[in-house]
TrEMBL record:
GO process terms (BP): intracellular potassium ion homeostasis; intracellular sodium ion homeostasis; potassium ion import across plasma membrane; proton transmembrane transport; sodium ion export across plasma membrane
InterPro entries: ATPase_P-typ_cation-transptr_C (IPR006068), ATPase_P-typ_cation-transptr_N (IPR004014), ATPase_P-typ_cyto_dom_N (IPR023299), ATPase_P-typ_P_site (IPR018303), ATPase_P-typ_TM_dom_sf (IPR023298), ATPase_P-typ_transduc_dom_A_sf (IPR008250), ATPase_P-type_domA (IPR059000), Cation_transp_ATPase_P-type (IPR050510)
GO cellular component, one term: plasma membrane
Family in the record: Belongs to the cation transport ATPase (P-type) (TC 3.A.3) family. Type IIA subfamily.
Name of this chain's protein: HAD-IC family P-type ATPase
Compartment annotation: Membrane
Keywords: ATP-binding, Membrane, Nucleotide-binding, Translocase, Transmembrane, Transmembrane helix
Ranges for region Disordered: 1-27
Segments passing through the bilayer: 270-288, 294-320, 725-746, 798-819, 861-884, 896-915
Membrane-topology descriptor: Multi-pass membrane protein
Domain (Cation-transporting P-type ATPase N-terminal): residue spans on this chain: 29-102
Keyword NAD: no
Amino acid sequence: MTVSPDSHAPEIGTADNRSRADRAPATTAWHSLSPAEALAAQESGPNGLSEEEAAARLRRYGANRLPRTARAGLLKLYVRQFKSPMVYLLLAATVVSLFVGEWSDALFIFVVLQLNAVIGGLQEWRAETSAAALDKMMRNRVVVLRAGRTREIDAAALVSGDVLRLESGGRVPADLRILSQQELSVDESLLTGESLPLEKDAEATVAAAAPMSERRTLLFAGTTVLTGRARALVVACGNDTQIGRIASVLAQPDQAPPPLIARLEQASRLIGFATLVAIAGLAAVQLAQGVSLITVFLVAVALAVAAIPEGLPVAITVALSIATARMADRNVIVRALPAVEGLGACTLIASDKTGTLTCNELTVKQVLLFDDAGPAVNGAVGGEGYRPQGTIAVEGGAPSQQELAGFNELARSAALCNEAEIEFDGDAVRHLGDTVDVAFLVLAAKLGLDPGGLKATQEELGMIPYEPQRRYAAVFTADAGDPGMGGQGPDGSGGAMVHVKGALEALLPMCDGIDGERALAAAAAMAGQGYRVLAVARGTVSRDAGQRADPGSLRYLRLLGLVGLMDPLRPEVPDALRRCRSAGVSVVMVTGDHPETARVIARELGLGTGDPVVVTGAMLGRAGAGSEAFNDLVRGAEVFARVEPVQKLRIVQALQQSGHLVAVTGDGVNDAPALATADIGVAMGKGGTDVARGAADLILTDDNFASIVAGIEEGRVAYDNVRKLIYLLISTGLGEIVLFLLAIVAGLPLPLFAVQLLWLNLVTNGIQDVALAFEKGEPGVLERRPRLRDESLFDRRMLGQVLTAGGYMGFCAFAFYYWCLARGLPEAEARNLLLLLMVLFENVHAINARSERLSAFARPIMANPFLIMAVLAAQAAHIAALYLPGLSDVLGVRPVSLTDWLLVAALALSLLAVMEIRKLVSARRGSDPGTGR
Ligand code: ADP
Ligand code: MG
């Protein structure tokens, strides 16, 4: 597969003969050129471009990116804010004010409209900015060949003429001419809508006029590799790719809002409707009382604006995007916003083993050589990490010459049947590829073999790449000079060798003259020590079979031995598992590995009960997916071992059926269905494939199980904060309605004018609401049971606290107003004090809303500086308005004395006391039944 690093860099175009590539029209029929012709036309070679040439092309032609649907700019967002019924109402109010000559009212309403639009626009902008920032973190990485050396780069840095390597699960980063491939099939549904796998072949002959769907020698940007491996030449980048030319197709249709937001939109419509009915009732009473039609209309509009939580969906979107940013800090990238709150309700995590629970830093620790009779020599391998220093010791000390030859033979086959690359540079080790493969290269290096050189001297005829569902890999070489393993094929055509490594169960049927039972027992014993066990075998095949990479030729192989690899456990996992348990989240392990290995690792991590219940893929297969027996097995299991990727989906479905809200991790192509089906699909940022990432809701940038737990914690915090926001907005709205209701029923003059209501709404909600989204978690978020899957946001607790707070605010405000008037204060002065009271009430209530269950002071108030700043800013803005000539006239307010301010503030603070008492009482009564909160 790999081109030897010591071969020469290709002839690359210099400044003056580069013109050919320049002229190459975008319409070149790359599919009908041979690989060699395509390479020549791109002035590239089998070893790729040089770094300098690639850099020059990148400068000249630009990055390999598709045009994005431009992000809405601030101005556009601002304009968008005016498309709302609430704004139409306010505009109507402006017109009416103008009509009756209330110039200052009209101007004020107009200014409020602008401010609302600016605030709303900024909020949406912030939400979109963080989404775009996350987008950036999701960049695709590709493996390119530059001057014969493989390197991993950002797909955006690809240029025409680059040669790259692709494997199953990868997204095709540009339009490519295939140079060579093994078992290559792709999914082109993005381009064609056809979702059947398409086989591709570098050697196929394709007519120049062939339609896209028949261009079997090409890979198109945006499609995905389902199986196999390929080496391919970049022939078109960015806008010049097929998908780039039809980029309009990609311009994402307006995405439906996440369910939580949709539910909220519904709820705010409902609340809005109820408010309108209440307002209509009030208006009728006022009209009957002889208030002028215009005043009634203006107040109704202002009341609607103040009390209807129309800004709620946007505020919640902002809250979720704040949570998203926090999760990103804890290595969880959120691809789908609903997953933020979904994580908080998760009851079960089905986790991969390798890389997620373990470090994915494999090292060969043990090699068990086999002879015809069975296990013969047991070698312990020394050394640390990926460094090539370390020796093999056998029971008697140093191995004999013959034993050493045996170890060499095995290491050699494993290094040939290998897709990884490694370079030792002093103490630094640079490696690329699967960690199992890397570990075998390190073993070879410890035994003094040069892995790179070995590959270069052994011509590779064909290969069967490793795919998880197959559990083995094979490489066919034209191994001529191998001592003792005759190079002649059965047909005398010049033979070939095949080197195979993989699970013993997969290799046994290919091997000859081996006692299967004894071998399996030896593997189980090794697995019982927690080793990941791989078998290595070798044999001769015909050259023809080797070139075809024929799996049918894998017969009469000789089992060379078993290898035990150690993968250290992630140190943070045991604690994360404990936290899951206290949070009421079960964890199961799903692995393709040996049941014994899985059992030992589960036990060491403390996953499940002391001796975990292990269910194997074979047991599930016998039970038959969907059957009762299958479901029972799944429900009882703590570890699933030797499961096939396809079974993962069935496991997830069975778990969901038994009532779990399932988060599942996955990395391969075959995991995509399970990831998509799970309530929360979690993919790996480092180890996972592009396909898995595309199907997931969340991505772990560090592949670490503990990050999922952090995500659950943040998910719960986010959900709590969403509730707090809703609580604050709805209860203050209710307070205003109650005030008006009581005042009008009692026959008092209008408590607040339209402009005053608008001002109240602006300085409180406009400034304060989003600050609640910055609340950090309350103590014990991870000690609660998960919330129920379909728990309503408007549950008993919510209703109770909204009614208490809103009712109390409204009633107090009414009583205060009544008292002011009764004391003989002029109406204007009473309104002045009442408005101050309402602003203070809403300031105080923002503090209340910090927690639904705990005292507002259970967490230091300084823990959320945004909230303090918001409350202070709101109060400061109001006090400023009292003194600002012009504004104070429009608002009908004037400075109040310190004593008055203190009196009003004391009254407002009583709301704090009331709500603290309510929290105490409901804590005494225990958590609300049925909600688990
Ligand atoms: P896990 O669930 O722990 O990630 P995998 O599905 O990756 O396990 O691996 C399952 C089995 O496939 C392993 O036990 C091993 O026998 C085999 N295997 C894994 N990686 C390779 C490889 N690179 N080459 C050959 N066989 C492999
Ligand atoms: Mg794996």
